[in-house]
Write a structure and sequence with these properties.
253 residues; alpha/beta; Rossmann fold; seven-stranded mixed sheet; two-stranded antiparallel sheet; 10 helices; disordered N terminus
Length: 253
């Protein structure tokens, strides 16, 4: 992890291209739900956009998407779209005009922020009755034997290498004070159909994997792949991977 002069914690710039290739895709149903509950679909702000995964889906529903990230490397790796305005900016100081956006989204990133400062910024840029959506996803599930191997990597192998902020993800953001009027939200989940090599590529995007490798000079995913190989069978076989995805949605009042 590196930290810039403005305090931005950069966990992902060193693997921007891997992050873009090997991360799962958010369900379109989530963005349809958010568009239906927004006061309008003129402008959305996707905060901590990374390489623009959520921004690209928002652009299907909103006329304009402002997609910010504190990492210039992540922004440079993002997929371009004429409806998306990519900017390098932190969550707490976006530079966006006040009361100008209908929707603010944060996908799998809130735990890295100064959370009270970000919520103040979201309140500032949102229109009256605009909405904010924060979501996370935790460990994937495939089938019990495979899950046990991945859980071993996540826990006993990497436990000391996860940043402390990761605990907020493990609690599904339930412990975060959410200063917006919360609205009922359906259950959402991500699903991907991957080969074993694609799964291992995803595991290598974990920040704790990179920290472990930096400290020990060993890729811990190699041993995980060896343990998974007999359980997976043909490594080119495609399996369904599922990530439960808790979402909190609130109204700016």
């Amino acid at each position: 992890m590196s930290m810039s002069s403005n305090g931005f914690k950069d966990h992902f710039s060193g693997a921007s291209s891997d992050y873009q290739r090997n991360r799962p895709t958010y369900p379109d149903a989530l963005f349809a739900f958010l568009a239906a509950h927004s006061p309008a679909c003129n402008c959305a702000w996707d905060c901590a956009t990374g390489t623009g995964q959520a921004a690209q889906l928002l652009a299907r529903y909103f006329e304009r998407v402002i997609a910010t990230d504190g990492s210039a490397t992540q922004i440079a790796s993002a997929v371009r779209d004429p409806r998306i305005d990519y900017r390098v900016a932190t969550a707490e100081a976006s530079g966006i005009e006040g009361a100008s956006v209908d929707l603010v989204t944060v996908a799998q990133a809130l735990h890295w922020f100064d959370i009270p400062a970000f919520f103040r910024e979201a309140h500032r840029v949102l229109k009256p009755r605009g909405i904010i959506a924060i979501w996370s996803y935790n460990l994937l599930t495939i089938e019990p034997a495979i899950d046990a191997v991945i859980n071993h990597l996540y826990g006993p192998v990497l436990d000391a290498y996860w940043p402390p902020e990761r605990r907020l993800v493990e609690s599904d953001y339930r412990d975060i004070e959410f200063p917006f009027r919360q609205i009922a939200t359906p259950s959402f989940a991500m699903e991907s159909r991957w080969t074993l090599d694609q799964l291992l590529g995803y595991l290598r995007t974990w920040s704790a994997v990179r920290r472990y490798q930096s400290e020990h000079g060993i890729d811990p995913v190699i041993a995980t792949g060896e343990a998974l190989s007999p359980l997976w069978g043909d490594r080119h076989a495609i399996r369904t991977i599922r990530w439960p995805m808790p979402v909190r949605v609130g109204v700016n009042e």
